[in-house]
Design goal:
Blueprint lengths: L6 H12 L13 H26 L3 E8 L2 E9 L15 E2 L4 H15 L8 H4 L8 H6 L27 H7 L18 H14 L4 H10 L11 H6 L7 E2 L6 E2 L17 E2 L1 H12 L3 E2 L2 E2 L3 H8 L3 E2 L4 E3 L4 E5 L2 E9 L4 E7 L4 E7 L6 H14 L6 H22 L14 E5 L3 E8 L2 E6 L4 E7 L4 E6 L6 H7 L5 E7 L5 E6 L7 E4 L2
Antiparallel strand pairs: 1-2, 1-14, 3-6, 4-5, 7-8, 9-10, 10-11, 11-12, 12-13, 13-14, 15-16, 15-22, 16-17, 17-18, 18-19, 19-20, 20-21, 21-22
Keywords: Hydrolase, Signal
InterPro entries: AmpC-like (IPR050491), Beta-lactam-related (IPR001466), Beta-lactam/transpept-like (IPR012338), Peptidase_S12_Pab87-rel_C (IPR021860)
Organism: Microvirga alba
Amino acid sequence: MSPFGSSCSAALALALSLAGAPPVLAQGPGDASAIRERITRLIPEFETYLQSGMKDFKVPGVAVGIVHDDKLIYAKGFGVRERGKPDQVSPNTIFQIGSTTKAFLSTTLAQAVDSGKLSWSARVSDLMPEFQLSDPWIGREFRVLDLAAQRGGFTPYVNDALSLLGYDRATLIHSLRDAPITATFRSDFTYVNIPHIVAGEILARKAGVSSWSEVVKANILDPLGMSSTTATPEAIEKAPDHATGHRTTKADPVAIPFHASFPYAFGPAGALNSNIPDMAQWLRMQLGRGQFEDRFIVSEKNLDVTWTPRVAISERTAYAVGWVVNATPNGRIIWHNGGTSGFGAHAGFVPDRDLGIVILSNLENTGLPDAAAQWFYDRVMGNDAVDNVALALEAMRAKQEEERQKEARAKRVFPPQDLSSFAGNYASSIIGDATVQLAATKLQIKLEETDATLTLEQLDTDTFNARLDPTGPFAPVVALGGDDPVTQVRFERDDSGAIKRMRWLAPSLPHVLERQP
């Protein structure tokens, strides 16, 4: 699945469909020794189940860590760091953790509130005047807490792909002023990433440093001893024991490169690399309600703000601030998953049982990390036993079939026409100037600001698929996602039939470029 699409969205949607077993008679949390005994008995079955799931999903490698009673009680690697190579995954193997990074952001926000540098209710536009939205009232009303609560009303994943087309973080933030508000502010759950970049920039400015990665290192990673956790592609590549990411194809998964545009350009929305020992420290701090060993990391009061549901996703599931909260008959689960182009992750915990689990994998998140984690939660907590991997496989295959049928429907028959009539100069206030030109027998769009070139494949008279060309610095970007289209493009005509604008039709890239004289 392409990074231009919604791999994170699909992973989160699938995880939400698996979250929450059918109601059963509630059981008490039990004491630590009873829970430890239950986990010990469960481990052999869990390992068998996980390895079977790896085979079904074609996941090359997985690392798992279980935290209980303020200790990492289980850590193990399965499979290989790269498909077709012998190096084995170990608990120390570094993976991208994707959107599980969002909880690190929400905790750094809580720390800033603790120190008096921010308040949860501060207006974002007062802290960052360049933060503007298409609805001026919502733009003025948007508060710090809203930045990480997934309730802003935006189209899911709006403008994320601009990073893959070479645009910088300033452009991503600027793009929100033209992003349509398609859901109800503070009432509807819609998953986005760019507001988290805004939050990270605010924190960096308050701290007087250049980036949020410096904030999280100073305030969380160093105090917790998370020395293997980093935030750049260079750092994960230099790590002696790191996994290689893989994307799915119609055949077998293929290895992909690391690249700054995804997920690293998104900083606090998904940039961290980590491993099991480090993530165990993170969960220990969460389960310690802000305390880690003899250190105060964040107040329980403001950590609780990050755990508190803010917008409903379903009857028993809600989004908090950087976390998803799932209510089960036998307790709540607080978790988040991650899905990048080549990695899938799950990190979660059960506060009432002092229990947490991390599952890291080196295949884009098609469902295994979340399914395996939910299987584990249900059995430790005494919820109904469900075959979560089977449900995830069924959902993945249904999604693949839906995409296949959509691709087949897109092939249409249209009369021959003069493609040169589409050529010309176009412009947008967000993405700048674009030149449409005829190259051999196909149209191309050249984005003047970034030098990205999109080749157009005609679908009907005025509609085209636009695919990024793997040229120059964009070759590794295409390798991340294969040849999936960036968007469909429709050229619109005036009353005389002349082309007047070019409209990008992907909901996550809602841009209109006017033809210039």
